[in-house]
Amino acid sequence: MGKDFFIGFLSLCFSFSAIAQPAVDGFMKGKGNIDVVGGLTFDSFSKFHASDGLVSLSRTTASASIFASAGITNWLDAQINLPYVMTASNWSNLQDVSVFLKGRFLNKATKKGTFSALIAGGFSTPITNYPTQGLNAIGQQATALDARLVFQYFANNGWFGMLQGGFTSRSILTPSSVPVAVKIGKAANNYYFDFYYDFQNADGGSDYRDGTNRAFTTLGVSYHKLGGTFYKPFNEGKMGVAFGAYSILAGRNVGQSIGGSAAFIYKIKYLKNE
């Protein structure tokens, strides 16, 4: 299986929860290709970053997600994600559906690799009346618009580096934020791995235990996160499995959590003549 053939499997985007992998990556699916991903993510913490420092607060969350990414053209992808989140006390519900378009406007080949630049825009909104308060909270019931620039260099030997940043505008009660992510990794003929740093900085909003007792929908959520992913294709690349892990190192109104994910990927070619 050649390297070019393998690249079609990389746009997996493990966005199974609000604090999973960055929402987009620097790879394109290619016209006529679809990845369908079913995944599970687990997240647990015993300390929480509140207004008065790191406090004792425990929670474990699990989520199941269906994700699909399609190559509309060789330079334009579309993706959709829908997570089902399960929290303490058996609370569970569908969370926020998200849709992204990602377009590549620069693809410059050099002797040692290829530099590409992309722009991505996304929309997410809650589709159920899930709880937003306390340890049973599933999300913040916020509708969001997300815009990002993505730069990536992919070397001929399979190593790559990615940098992205942008702005996420949320509905009036929930603070907007600035996301930044850096990723390095390798796409070999029969495996893929990456390591990433993901940062989000919220603009204003309230803080947990700041004395105002405002609704959780007004909390400003910021974090510094490190993580990684490993992907292995099989059945001549038509299927694959992926595993991920991450840790929240610091933040604001977020648990100091560790998490992991597992996913099954199935590749479909919907244009047989491509």
Describe the structure in your own words.
With 274 residues, the protein is mainly β. It has a single domain (3-269), classed as Outer membrane phospholipase (ompla), Chain C (Beta Barrel), CATH 2.40.230. Helix content is 2%, strand content 61%. A 12-stranded antiparallel barrel has the order 1-2-3-5-6-7-8-9-10-11-12-14. Strand 9 (177-187) and strand 10 form a beta hairpin. The longest helix has 5 residues, at 3-7. It is globular. Mean pLDDT is 90; it is low at 1-19.
List keywords for this structure.
single chain; about 270 residues; mainly beta; Outer membrane phospholipase (ompla), Chain C; 12-stranded antiparallel barrel; 1 helix; about 60% strand; disordered N terminus
